[in-house]
Amino acid sequence: MAGSFEPAPLLRPAEFSRALLRTLEASEGRRRRRKRDQTPDGIGLALKRDVLERIVAEDPEPERFEAWLLDLVAATPAGGGVRAMCREILDEYRLAARDARFSAWLAQGAPSDDAALER
User: Structurally, how many domains does the chain consist of?
Assistant: First the structure.
């Protein structure tokens, strides 16, 4: 699959996190339509939203982003959930940095049929 990934321009973590916050709208739409107990999903989405909002507020430098996330985990008592969300966010950030298509999708406001269904 040579050539399937095209590097994306460097994103600031805050810019990336703003875009990722928009994707949570689609996740909320899917979550509301499920027929089972949504409590764990809601907790996970709220935790992810909290971490993303902290990133937006503090706007860490791209080259310090991973260390910033580690500092957040270290400062959180019983931070297992925060650690998991930070790992997920870092993976998504790295994907956005390596895949111009994913980065472009985020920049377009993360369009989703699920989000459109909720409007």
Answer: 1
